[in-house]
Amino acid sequence: MAIFKPFKALRPTPEYASRVAALPYDVMNSNEAREMVEGNPYSFLHIDKAEIDLPADTYLYSDEVYAKACENLNSFEKNGILAEDSIPCFYVYRQIMNGREQTGLVGCASVDDYINNHIKKHELTRADKEADRIRHVDTCDANTGPIFLCYKGQEKIISIIEKAKSNAPVYDFVTDDGISNTVWVIDNTDTIAQLSALLENAGDFYIADGHHRCASAVNVAKMRREQNPGYNGTEEFNFFLAVLFPAENLEIMDYNRVVNDLNGKTENEFIKEISENFNVEKANCDGAYHPEEKHTFGMYLNKEWYKLSAKDGTFDKGDPVDRLDVSILQKNLLTPTLNIGDPRTDKRIDFIGGIRGLKELEKLVDGGMAVAFSMYPTTLDDLMDIADANMIMPPKSTWFEPKLLSGLFIHKLK
Predict the structure, then answer these.
(1) pLDDT by residue (tens digit) across 72-123?
(2) What global pTM score does this model have?
(3) What are the Cα distances from residue 269, in Å, to 8, 260, 266, 308, 337?
(4) Taking Cα atoms as reference points, which of 282, 277, 274, 307 lies closest to residue 292?
(5) Cis peptide leading into 169, omega within 30 of 0?
(6) What are the residue boundaries of the structural domains of the chain, listed by start?
(7) Domain 255-376 CATH class label
């Protein structure tokens, strides 16, 4: 049982929504962000990556950056670019990408549910990334980026959300990458009460994406609790901004791998060695090979696509982590044959989100990299099985698209 509650969103006035909305802060670097905001003073990147409004040599984690983020957020509100709703509401957020729709409910999740594991995790976080967002949230006094949550969908909840979509939206725009974004407000008190009650009995929630933002929000809440020993649990700092999707509404894309070299091996030596753990055959396809089922992999080597199939005994079918394709490739090929022990830190490996397509793998290998692997996507069932078992996925296991835009909803901590 997890809590999901309405809140008074600080959000763009309709005429600014499409210009405020921005990709998450962690999908681009500072130079890319500067290019993205050129000619657009309303982009939320002025808040989420405030270093873009400071000299280029400014240290990314300096006091000035966080102070500028807070200044810009306050300025947006003061100048009417953002306005806070007068009553707590739920919000419906729909995205359509390449004809596929995902619709989530925007609200606030509970810090205590995260602490007590009613909001389940599947990924480790890095202290440096957490520290950055802790300071950002604390200085801005707000959650500025939504956490991407999912749950095992229930028909009654979905039905209420679908009914809300029959009303006029407050935002409806298409971004430059062709993704449709539409938002509706649920402000009817009876509907809110009904949704809240149903959500309390919807079971546990799962973090799909945003582990660092979530952990940072929780750490800020712990800090505020220490500063306010008389807190009663209803204060806004006890909750964080999230978008909750039924799991069956989501799609995980492949997260592919490319490696610089063959670890000193010739092509023939490499293929012979990996044949101990995989059945290796030339792919019978026109163009790039995308695996069609679990435990199979595409491999692009010397302008040729191969199909790899994991042999029996190379993984534990009863272990939800060991049977993941990313684990199978790591344990049976990347580590023993290519000597890539820690993919988090090894500079010889790179990871390519499926949104970029398999042609990107061919381009990289043809341009000097040694070998690439196309993956069958991790499934939502995989993610939830691992989270339910309190286990951790290997790095770079999931790639969600479309990304939730930032700036459409801000949750104030006071």
Answers:
(1) 999 999 999 999 999 999 999 999 999 999 999 999 999 999 999 999 999 8
(2) 0.93
(3) 62, 17, 5, 16, 10
(4) 307
(5) no
(6) 4-251+401-412, 255-376
(7) alpha beta
